[in-house]
Design brief:
The structure is a single chain. This protein has 83 residues and is mainly α. It has a domain of 41 residues. Helix content is 71%, strand content 0%. The chain has 4 helices and no strands. Helix 2 packs across helix 4. The protein starts with a helix and ends in a 14-residue tail after the last helix.
Length: 83
């Protein structure tokens, strides 16, 4: 039995539910952590106290996605020019 034949046997409600889970999982594990990486890399040295606290909360919330993306992204901050 092929995969597409199996999908056609599933009810439309179940397919909709699987699609919703896939979209939410992609948002949680890929899209929001990428945006968070971008935001932290862009604003690290100019963040205020409240913004930094908010970002740390988001890091805690989206930690699984950040760990998933960490081997592929370089988050080294720019230092003082030391080599």
């Amino acid at each position: 039995m092929s995969f597409f034949r199996y999908l056609s046997d599933i009810s439309s409600e179940t397919r909709t539910l699987l699609l919703a889970y896939g979209v939410l999982g992609g948002l949680y594990l890929i899209l929001v952590p990428l945006a968070l990486y971008w935001w932290m890399n862009r604003r690290w040295y100019i963040m205020g106290k409240i913004e930094r606290l908010f970002v740390y909360g988001l890091v805690f919330l989206f930690f699984p996605g950040l760990i998933l993306l960490s081997p592929f992204l370089n988050m080294r901050l720019k230092g003082q020019g030391e080599t």
